[in-house]
């Protein structure tokens, strides 16, 4: 039990890149449901949104900015949404003892802030998350500022969507903190949205020229990605929850840990280039070269038949799987090699506060 009774402040840290349609539903409601001027503030980082977010905040939320309940920051640098970096930036900007990541599509629920402040007053070495029942609230992590800094923030070596939250929480546990979960169903509301919304601002999603998938066995699929810069990547993804019943694969074939129900990537990711002319596509992978007609919806590579993925929702789901598995692979490598997380710093960049673009604030 925590004996310290010094009043604590909690900052809800929101990052947003072209998700105004979600903030318009959640931000005002979250402030109203947790209006404690002496204990609560909301920090909103506009991560170079191009959808009118700045104008909407200026015309609709100024009363909260003037009261100090809301602080608006904007960075003009990012081209793509980078979860770990954006969260590190906004956490560093929040001057509060308790920091809580709040996704733009989440409703906190009435009294969430009061509950969290009381919990951190009672307990010293803790952090708080949801109870893992809903993925859409999984990103809500509350932690003391000093513990966030001690573990060097979110891992910026993890790019794209997925696993950055798991990695962050794992390192908090290794730091000696006890994970706690909130269970009040009022704290679990969110704006329902598709995987397309989830990954629409990611580098992978915005730079893909073609995606193909192949069936290998009931537990294994191949994914071929052709990017706009004419690079190519080929992944083999494995359902690790079924790996024990598939004798074909050995432990060394996958990036594995104690997490038995995770989609993982085979150790080798094949990389190469591709090119095209008016009628054909050419793929170069090491010494192997393949060509096929643009009109075909399936292609054969190394004896495997790859089928072109056209459905937008399926593409998004595959992006989520590949990106999260890639980040899991990188996190495992860092643990295995005992690498320092963010050795050159984290959350760096230039930002502006409350629409004052005459003064740069440099996070270095």
Commentary on this structure:
The structure is a single chain. The protein has 364 residues and is an alpha+beta fold. Helix content is 28%, strand content 29%. Strands 8, 9, 10, 11, 12, 13, 14, 15 and 16 form a 9-stranded antiparallel β-sheet that branches. Strands 6-4-1-2-3-17-18 form a 7-stranded mixed β-sheet, sandwiched between helices. The two termini are 36 Å apart. The relative contact order is 0.14.
What's the rounded overall pLDDT mean? 90
Query: How many β-strand stretches?
Result: 18
The fraction of residues assigned to DSSP E strands is: 25-35%
Order of helices and strands: EHEHHEHEHEEHHEHHEEEEEEEEEHEE
Kindly give the count of domains. 2
Assign an overall shape: globular
What share of residues is helical?
25-40%
Count of alpha/pi helices:
10
| Main sheet makeup | 9 strands, antiparallel
CATH superfamily of the largest domain: Spore Coat Polysaccharide Biosynthesis Protein SpsA, Chain A
Quickly give the CATH architecture of the largest domain: Alpha-Beta Complex
Q: For the record, give the distance between the C-alpha atoms at the N and C termini, rounded to a whole number.
A: 36 Å
CATH class of the largest domain: Alpha Beta
Structural class: alpha+beta
Unreliable segments (pLDDT under 50, ≥5 consecutive)?
A: 244-260
Report the radius of gyration as a whole number of Å.
22 Å
CATH topology of the largest domain: Spore Coat Polysaccharide Biosynthesis Protein SpsA, Chain A
């Amino acid at each position: 039990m925590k004996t310290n009774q010094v009043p604590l402040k909690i900052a809800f840290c929101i990052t947003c890149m072209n998700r105004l349609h979600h903030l318009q539903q959640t931000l005002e409601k979250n402030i109203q449901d947790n209006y404690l001027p002496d204990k609560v503030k909301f920090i909103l980082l506009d991560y170079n949104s191009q959808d009118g977010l700045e104008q909407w905040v200026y015309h609709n939320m100024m009363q909260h900015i003037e009261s100090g309940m809301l602080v608006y920051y904007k960075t003009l640098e990012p081209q793509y949404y980078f979860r770990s970096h954006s969260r590190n930036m906004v956490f560093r900007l929040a001057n509060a003892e308790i920091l809580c990541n709040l996704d733009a599509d989440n409703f906190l629920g009435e009294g969430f802030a009061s509950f969290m402040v009381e919990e951190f007053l009672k307990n010293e070495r803790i952090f708080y998350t949801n109870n893992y029942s809903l993925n859409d609230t999984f990103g809500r992590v509350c932690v003391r500022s000093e513990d966030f800094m001690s573990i060097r923030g979110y891992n910026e070596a993890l790019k794209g969507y997925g696993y950055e939250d798991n990695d962050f929480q794992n390192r908090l546990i290794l730091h000696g903190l006890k994970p706690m979960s909130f269970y009040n169903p009022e704290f679990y509301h969110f704006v329902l949205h598709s995987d397309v919304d989830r990954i629409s601002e990611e580098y992978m999603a915005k730079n893909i020229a073609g995606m193909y998938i192949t069936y290998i066995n009931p537990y294994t699929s191949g994914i071929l990605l052709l990017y706009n810069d004419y690079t190519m990547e080929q992944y083999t993804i494995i359902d690790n929850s079924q790996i024990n019943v598939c004798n074909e694969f050995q432990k060394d074939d996958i990036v594995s840990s104690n997490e038995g129900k995770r989609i993982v990537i085979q150790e080798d990711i094949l990389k190469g280039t591709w090119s095209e002319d008016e009628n054909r596509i050419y793929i170069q992978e090491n010494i192997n070269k393949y060509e096929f007609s643009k009109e075909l919806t399936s292609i054969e590579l190394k004896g495997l038949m790859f089928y072109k993925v056209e459905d937008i929702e399926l593409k998004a789901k595959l992006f989520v799987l590949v990106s999260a598995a890639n980040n899991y692979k990188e996190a495992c490598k860092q643990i295995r090699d005992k690498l320092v997380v963010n050795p050159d710093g984290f959350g760096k960049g230039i930002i502006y506060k409350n629409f004052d673009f005459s003064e740069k604030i440099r996070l270095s």
